[in-house]
Amino acid sequence: MAKTGSAPKKVVLAYSGGLDTSIILKWLQTEFGAEVVTFTADLGQGEELGPAREKALAAGVKPENIFIEDVREDFVRDYVFPMFRANAVYEGVYLLGTSIARPLIAKRQIEIADMVGADAVCHGATGKGNDQVRFELGYYGLNPDIKVIAPWRDWDFKSRTDLLKFAESHGIEIAKDKRGEAPFSVDANLLHSSSEGKVLEDPAVAAPEFVHMRTIAPEDAPDEPEIITIGFEKGDACSINGEEMSPATLLTALNAYGKKHGIGRLDLLENRFVGMKSRGIYETPGGTILLVAHRGIEQATLDKGAAHLKDELMPKYAELIYNGFWWSPEREMLQAAIDHSQRYVSGEVTLKLYKGQAYLIGRSSPYSLYSEKIVTFEDDHGAYDQKDAEGFIKLNALRLRLLAGRDRKFGKNS
After folding, report:
1. Which residues are catalytically annotated?
2. pLDDT tens track for 188-212
3. Which pTM value belongs to this model?
4. Domain boundaries, the chain
5. Is 134 annotated as a binding residue?
6. What is the CA radius of gyration of the chain?
7. 185 a known binding residue?
């Protein structure tokens, strides 16, 4: 490996305890002689994190240098919920489940680095993907002087076989199913799971059913619909069926509803920030339900101008998150505008869950802008004078009438 600058002395590694990050841990020790600090985040990925501590200890990491933290509440409250206030979807469909987790991990790595006096941070993202960008934009956005180590771009290993040989030579445990190449790559957290690679690389071939981890197939979902009510306070979901819940508890409950009814599957051929297209199978059961519900309560409480402006801003906001610019001033500016719009986005939404879909069937709010008195087809007792519409239409038609007059006089294509 070609080294630039001085070798790091102490490195905070984003560590899952899996094979790849275990290899990275040992590589940091052997390549640089660096003291390694591991950070493992419980984001609701559904895995037991105890083994990560044992593996780090076995690799020679000091007990005081092992950080394993339950950040599920922080994740949903400070990252997922702000994103859902924006109704953010990338390329029209993707709910950004992987993207939104990276700023939190990067932030904690930088905080831990400051705490323990580390001069470098390290991630396990490959040189082809988006995550390398997301992690590193986060690092630099929080500490412009931090040294960043990206092993997949730097080391001399050319193949999975080389990695396994390195693991075996250093006594790193290799699960039997890891001796060949995994059938696909998986990332998961409380918001979603994503699967990419191998059996999924041909976008013309349907994903095998075994790829799906968070949902049952819609055709296997119950034959009877289920009705639920979600409560909102200032744009954030706060209750289900009248029961107040913390952010992470609420999303966990929505995930269970989504799994049961086969809601939240997505097969996407997306445009990565680094330039290539990739095929991903995403499952976002609770998030899919939450998006339908949030848009439902906004229907009642947002003014037309604010609602339409939000929809115009949303693609830019979603792209910023997808590309890794969570800590950018433009994302924070957009967030301020979005959060301002949510002051009266409170009330309840009723949904019907059935066979892969969440259907909005009712919404109510003390701040609703809907007026049955004005919109009714019955006698509105003077609440709305329909004759006013004539002047409104003529004023809006003025420029069209001028254009039509010219076209009739000279011909439209003259």
Report:
1. 20, 102, 131, 185
2. 999 999 999 889 999 999 999 999 9
3. 0.92
4. 10-75+98-181, 186-302+345-364, 372-410
5. yes
6. 26
7. yes
